[in-house]
Amino acid sequence: MAVQNAFEQKKRAILSEIDSTQPDLSPKGSIDALCLPIIELINTSNDMVTTSSCSGRVSVFLEGTKSYNGEVKIGGKGQGGKWLYVTHDHEKVVGWLDELMSKNEYALETCGKHIPSEQITGTTRYILYKYEPFILHVKCRDFQIASKLYNAAMSCGFRESGIGSNNLVAIRINIKLDVPIGYLDESSETLMLFVSPEYVSILDSLSLSKFDENARKMQTLYDKIDNELINCIPAPNTKTKVALAETKEERRERKKKEGMERQRQLKSTQNQL
Amino acid sequence: MAVQNAFEQKKRAILSEIDSTQPDLSPKGSIDALCLPIIELINTSNDMVTTSSCSGRVSVFLEGTKSYNGEVKIGGKGQGGKWLYVTHDHEKVVGWLDELMSKNEYALETCGKHIPSEQITGTTRYILYKYEPFILHVKCRDFQIASKLYNAAMSCGFRESGIGSNNLVAIRINIKLDVPIGYLDESSETLMLFVSPEYVSILDSLSLSKFDENARKMQTLYDKIDNELINCIPAPNTKTKVALAETKEERRERKKKEGMERQRQLKSTQNQL
């Protein structure tokens, strides 16, 4: 019987959670489909395991109530902050304003020509429109592997990456939008937009461009990791494994199918809940 | 004669550059005054040296010409991108629009009620209003010190920090604004604003709040580093030095004065150039 070290135990536990048809701990409850290829790729390595990910998303967030006890929370979630809209799917970006209105949870108006600046105070709950790019956390067997992954990510433009505690690598890139588009008028429970629907359309088209750029960067990173950490010839005295049994294309295709199958299973489980 | 190792040589070279009255390599040419206390604190340690910093800033950036050869650059600097306005000083945030207009480099108009969406294409050069928070890079003697600094930063809310190559720690926080506020009408060389001056005022007041939050976070980080990396009782077998000759307050006061003196010298040098 092979004795597992701490990394291997952790990896097995994480993979069995990923393989499970139960929802995971994220608000969405499952891995974003666009992340599956790179997650599957990384997890073929004996030296790495993915721990969390987001493929990139557009969100519209209503800040919570801000506290003045001690620290003033500006721009944070606050008490009772909530997502008015979230999508990871570029096809669901355009039209979010209509969808939000159709929910009838809040009334929604545009400020029109003049913003009632007397209503904007330090405790105003803003509505924030955000584009957030791909982010991935990967636990590595040792610091050498973590460094290699970090260097691969940095060289592909993921310039805000870093190694954290316990050889956990965060892969991050700075493709963002962070725009205050309105505020909640608490007296009338109305979402008041500072900006016109035309301006919202411009934000949406910028988000679509960012989704594209994001997808290109993810592919570049996939190829880099594939070439430098997976299908590499190991240098003497490194633990990196050679995995050449199937071609890149074959594995990519197989992993994509397996991932899609798991998504289907997960969806059918969720529908039954 | 003491033999210096690579870290010590590097540190001495960096400190002599900081101490020099010559402009540094940044666009601004000098260290932001708000960064001086934490930079001086960190550099009192034998195990750390700061390599770059920004105290936080508001900027208005005109994107450059985008290329369609190969990769489309969206949201990047592009060829000929330029800063229309930059300030690290919270007192110079309000009024930037007037200052920009007074420069007469570009005509400036607001789109008014309707954005001419037919003019917005994939090659449109947007005007981006940004708030970017404090960022600091610190080279550490070894991985143990880098980990300690990383953990200190994370525990103060600098959640996008990370350790990079050669024990270089990047300390980063996510307090941002990233707002497309207009575009360049190339035919008339006119900056066209999507948003009203009132909306710009809201952005400015949000930036001011972020400057405040940023300053609080910097102070928290200063105290944490002071307590855990500078004035700490070393655990057995660590190389961390004890530096208790003067009290925290005394050193802070002295370092502040020294920093201010250097800024004055630098300014007078720059005025002579």
Automatic annotation (TrEMBL), chains A, B:
Reaction catalyzed: 4-demethyl-7-[(3S)-3-amino-3-carboxypropyl]wyosine(37) in tRNA(Phe) + S-adenosyl-L-methionine = 7-[(3S)-3-amino-3-carboxypropyl]wyosine(37) in tRNA(Phe) + S-adenosyl-L-homocysteine + H(+)
A GO term for molecular function: methyltransferase activity
Pathway(s) this gene product operates in, as recorded in its UniProt entry: tRNA modification; wybutosine-tRNA(Phe) biosynthesis
Single Gene Ontology BP annotation: tRNA processing
Ranges of biased composition (kind: Basic and acidic residues): 246-264
Residues in tRNA wybutosine-synthesizing protein domain copies: 9-226
Region (Disordered): 245-273
Similarity field: Belongs to the TYW3 family.
Functional description taken from the UniProt entry: S-adenosyl-L-methionine-dependent methyltransferase that acts as a component of the wybutosine biosynthesis pathway. Wybutosine is a hyper modified guanosine with a tricyclic base found at the 3'-position adjacent to the anticodon of eukaryotic phenylalanine tRNA.
Protein name in UniProt: tRNA wybutosine-synthesizing protein 3
Species in which this protein is naturally found: Saccharomyces pastorianus
